[in-house]
Recover the amino acids of this structure.
C-alpha cells in the first residue's frame, strides 16, 4: 500500500509524437546517464517509443508533445491529450513552429504537392492536411524549441514541471551564445548566418564549427530582426534567399515575424482559430477540480509573440 | 520559381506511427496489412528550388535515428551532381561518423527495444531491476555511439558539421585518441548483446525464404558505402539504377510507399548485409558471425537482431582503425567548392536498418528534383509477408496466446525507424 501511495505522489507524465522525425523523443532516449532516473523521478504513463506499457485513458500532470499535426487522427488524439493534461508542452521545432513541413505554408500549393508525391491514391489510413504547429489547434502551455531539443533544457523543464513550477527558457538568440563562445562572427565574413534571430540554447553549435546558423531552433524572443535584415541586405543577400532560409525551419512563425520587414505580407498565412471545444477542455465532473494554482502562472516566452 | 519537372516517387518518411491489421473471416486469415499512419510531410517538395546545402540540412531531418546516414547519402549524391572530389580525410571522418550512428542505433535497438520482448518485459526500464548489468552495458555502448556522432557531426541528432565538400571543424588528435581507446574498451559490453541473443531460442513460425540486398564495397573488406548493389540472386546493379531495384508504388493503407524487386518483396538491413557479405567480417565480430551463423538466417528475420549485435562489435573494432588512419592526416582540408552548378547524382549508403538511396538533380545552383528511398519503405512488403506467414501458422496450430506480441516481435526485428517499432499490432475478428 505504501508503495502504491509513493507511486501516486509522483507526477504523471506522458510523451507523445506526431509528424516529425521523432528526434526530440529520441534526444530524451539519448540521455543514457539520466534515462533510468527520469523514469524513476516521474510516473511515465506513456512513451510509445521506449515502452509498450501505455496508459492512454488517464489524466496527466504534464504531456510532452513532439511533431506537428497533419492528419485528422492526429488532431483527435492531440485534443484528447490536451483534455487529459494539466500542462501541455510543445517539444521541438515542429511542435512549436511547424518545422520544415510548414516551410511552404501560405503558398497555397499543398494539395498540388501532395498529389505530386502520392498521385491519386485515396488513403484509407487517415485524412491528411497541411502541417500546422500545435498551438494552432490547442492551447500550449510551454515551448521547448530545438531541432532537436537540448537535453539540458529538457531536464530543466521536467524538473520544474514535476514540482509544479513554471518554466522560463532562454529568450536570447544564438548570437549571444556565439559571443560567449568567442567565435569569429560569420556575418562579418559575409555568410548568411541566422544566429541573430534564432532562439539560443544550442550553445551556438554551428557557428562554433565555423558554419552559419541555419535557424533550426525557430525565432528568438529577443531578436533585433530589423538589424539582421539590414545586415544581410548590406551583404547583397536577396529577400528571396533570406526568406527561403528563414522559412526552412522557422516555418510560419518565422515568416509572420519577418513579414513587414521583408515586404512579403501577402504570403503570410493567417493564424487558424482553434476549434472552441478543444480550446476549453471540459471534463465532466472534473473541471472544477482544476485550480488555477495547478497551472503555472508565468507565461512562456513564446506567448510574447 | 520555374520548375520544369517534379517527379517524386518516394515516401515522406516512415519512422513513427504504423500499425498491423490482421483480418480473419470465419476463423480464417483473410488479410494482413502493415498500415503506416505517419502524417505526410512532403519534404521532397519542400526541397524543390532550394540550394544544395539547404537540402542536405532538410533531408537529414527525414529521420532522427538515421540522420547521419541520410546526410551521408545526401552529401555523396550532391557531390556527384556537383562534381566534387573530397580528400581522404573527409571520407575517413564520414566513415567514423557512420560507425557512431551504427553503434548508437543498433545498441538502442538490440538492448532497449528488442531484448525486453525476449525476456518478457514491456521496456528496458522494466527490465533493469533484473538485468541491470545488461541494460547498463547497452546504455554504455549506446552513449559511446551518441558521443562519437557528437564528435564528428557536432550533434548526435541532425549534426550540421558534415557539409558538402568537407567538414566545418575536425576533432583534435587527443579527442580522437580518447575515442579510440574507449571504443576498444567497450567491445566486451557489445559482445554481451551477442551472447544473450545467441543463447535465446528464436521463434520459427514466420520463416519464409527472402531476397536480400545491400551495397557492395569495391574493396574486399566489410563496409557500408558503395556504388554497387548486390542482390542475393547473384545480380549486381549500379546504385544510380536504384529504380530497377526498388520499383516504388503507392498503396491505400500506407503513407509510406512500397518497394518490390522483380515483383517480390525483399529484405534490407544487417541480416541482408551478413547473408551477402558476412564472410568479409574480420576480428572478434568475424568470430562471432562464424559461430552464430546458420541456415535459418536466410529464412528468419529474427536473426536481424543477432546480426545487429555482431555489427555493433564490428563498428567498435572499425572505429579505432579509422582513427589510426585519420591520425596520419595532419592537415585539416578546406571545404571543397563545387566545380559546377548543375548535374544529377545518386548515392547509396547502408543505414543501420538497410540500404538508403538519395538522388538529386540540380540546375542553376538549385535542387529541381529529389528522390529518396528509405530502407523501411523497401522492407515493408517483406515484413507484411512474414507477418502473414506467422499469423497463418499460429492460427492453424491454434497457438493464439499472445499472438499480438508474437507478430509485433517480427516487426520489431526489422528495426523499422523506432517509434513504429514499439506498439504495432491490432488483431480484428479473432
Amino acid at each position: 500500500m505504501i508503495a502504491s501511495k509513493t507511486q501516486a505522489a509522483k507526477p504523471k507524465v506522458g510523451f507523445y509524437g506526431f509528424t516529425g522525425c521523432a528526434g526530440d523523443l529520441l534526444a530524451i532516449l539519448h540521455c543514457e546517464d539520466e534515462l533510468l532516473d527520469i523514469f524513476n523521478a516521474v510516473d511515465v504513463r506513456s512513451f510509445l517509443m521506449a515502452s509498450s506499457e501505455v496508459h492512454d485513458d488517464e489524466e496527466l500532470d504534464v504531456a510532452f508533445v513532439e511533431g506537428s499535426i497533419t492528419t485528422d487522427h492526429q488532431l483527435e488524439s492531440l485534443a484528447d491529450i490536451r483534455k487529459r493534461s494539466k500542462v501541455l508542452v510543445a517539444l521541438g521545432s515542429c511542435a512549436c513552429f511547424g518545422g520544415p513541413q510548414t516551410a511552404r505554408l501560405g503558398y497555397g500549393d499543398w494539395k498540388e504537392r501532395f498529389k505530386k508525391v502520392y498521385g491519386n491514391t485515396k488513403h484509407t489510413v487517415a485524412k491528411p492536411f497541411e502541417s500546422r504547429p500545435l498551438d494552432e489547434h490547442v492551447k500550449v502551455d510551454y515551448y521547448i524549441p530545438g531541432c532537436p531539443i537540448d537535453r539540458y533544457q529538457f531536464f530543466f523543464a521536467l524538473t520544474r514541471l514535476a514540482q509544479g513550477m513554471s518554466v522560463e527558457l532562454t529568450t536570447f538568440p544564438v548570437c549571444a551564445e556565439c559571443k560567449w563562445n568567442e567565435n569569429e562572427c560569420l556575418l562579418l565574413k559575409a555568410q548568411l548566418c541566422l544566429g541573430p534571430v534564432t532562439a539560443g540554447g544550442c550553445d551556438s553549435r554551428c557557428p562554433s564549427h565555423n558554419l552559419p546558423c541555419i535557424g533550426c531552433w525557430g525565432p528568438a524572443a529577443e531578436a533585433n530582426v530589423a538589424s539582421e535584415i539590414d545586415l544581410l541586405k548590406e551583404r547583397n543577400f536577396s529577400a528571396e534567399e533570406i526568406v527561403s532560409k528563414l522559412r526552412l525551419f522557422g516555418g510560419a512563425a518565422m515568416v509572420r515575424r519577418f513579414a513587414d520587414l521583408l515586404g512579403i505580407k501577402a504570403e503570410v498565412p493567417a493564424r487558424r482559430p482553434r476549434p472552441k471545444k478543444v480550446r476549453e477542455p471540459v471534463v465532466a465532473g472534473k473541471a472544477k477540480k482544476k485550480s488555477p494554482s495547478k497551472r503555472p502562472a508565468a507565461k512562456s516566452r513564446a506567448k510574447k509573440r | 520559381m520555374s520548375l520544369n519537372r517534379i517527379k517524386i516517387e518516394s515516401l515522406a518518411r516512415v519512422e513513427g506511427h504504423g500499425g498491423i491489421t490482421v483480418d480473419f473471416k470465419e476463423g480464417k486469415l483473410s488479410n494482413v496489412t502493415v498500415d503506416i499512419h505517419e502524417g505526410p510531410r512532403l519534404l521532397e517538395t519542400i526541397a524543390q528550388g532550394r540550394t544544395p546545402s539547404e537540402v542536405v540540412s532538410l533531408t537529414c531531418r527525414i529521420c532522427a535515428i538515421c540522420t547521419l546516414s541520410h546526410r551521408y547519402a545526401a552529401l555523396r549524391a550532391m557531390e556527384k551532381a556537383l562534381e566534387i572530389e573530397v580528400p581522404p580525410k573527409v571520407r575517413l571522418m564520414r566513415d567514423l561518423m557512420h560507425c557512431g550512428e551504427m553503434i548508437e542505433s543498433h545498441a538502442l535497438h538490440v538492448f532497449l527495444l528488442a531484448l525486453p520482448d525476449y525476456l518478457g518485459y514491456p521496456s528496458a526500464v522494466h527490465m533493469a531491476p533484473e538485468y541491470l548489468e545488461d541494460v547498463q552495458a547497452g546504455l554504455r555502448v549506446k552513449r559511446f555511439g551518441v558521443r562519437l556522432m557528437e564528435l564528428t557531426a557536432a550533434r548526435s541528432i541532425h549534426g550540421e558539421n558534415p557539409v558538402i565538400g568537407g567538414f566545418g571543424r575536425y576533432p583534435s588528435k587527443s579527442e580522437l585518441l580518447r575515442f579510440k581507446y574507449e571504443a576498444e574498451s567497450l567491445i566486451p559490453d557489445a559482445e554481451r548483446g551477442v551472447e544473450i541473443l545467441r543463447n535465446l531460442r528464436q521463434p520459427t513460425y514466420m520463416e519464409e525464404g527472402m531476397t536480400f540486398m545491400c551495397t557492395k564495397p569495391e574493396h574486399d573488406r566489410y563496409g557500408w558505402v558503395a556504388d554497387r548493389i548486390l542482390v542475393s540472386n547473384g545480380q549486381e546493379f549500379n546504385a544510380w539504377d536504384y529504380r530497377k531495384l526498388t520499383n516504388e508504388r503507392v498503396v491505400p493503407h500506407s503513407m509510406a510507399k512500397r518497394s518490390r524487386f522483380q515483383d517480390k518483396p525483399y529484405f534490407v538491413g544487417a541480416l541482408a548485409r551478413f547473408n551477402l557479405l558476412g564472410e568479409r567480417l574480420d576480428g572478434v565480430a568475424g568470430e562471432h558471425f562464424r559461430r552464430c551463423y546458420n541456415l535459418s538466417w536466410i529464412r528468419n528475420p529474427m536473426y536481424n537482431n543477432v546480426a545487429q549485435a555482431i555489427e555493433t562489435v564490428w563498428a567498435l573494432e572499425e572505429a579505432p582503425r579509422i582513427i589510426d588512419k585519420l591520425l596520419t592526416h595532419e592537415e585539416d582540408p578546406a571545404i571543397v567548392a563545387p566545380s559546377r552548378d548543375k548535374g544529377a547524382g545518386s548515392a547509396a549508403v547502408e543505414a543501420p536498418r538497410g540500404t538508403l538511396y538519395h538522388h538529386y538533380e540540380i540546375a542553376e545552383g538549385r535542387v529541381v528534383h529529389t528522390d529518396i528511398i528509405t530502407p523501411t519503405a523497401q522492407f515493408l512488403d517483406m515484413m507484411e509477408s512474414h507477418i502473414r506467414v506467422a499469423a497463418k501458422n499460429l492460427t492453424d496450430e491454434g497457438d493464439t496466446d499472445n499472438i499480438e506480441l508474437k507478430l509485433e516481435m517480427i516487426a520489431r526485428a526489422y528495426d523499422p525507424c523506432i517509434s513504429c517499432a514499439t506498439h504495432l499490432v491490432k488483431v480484428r475478428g479473432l
Summary: Chain A touches chain B through 66 residues (CB under 8 Å).
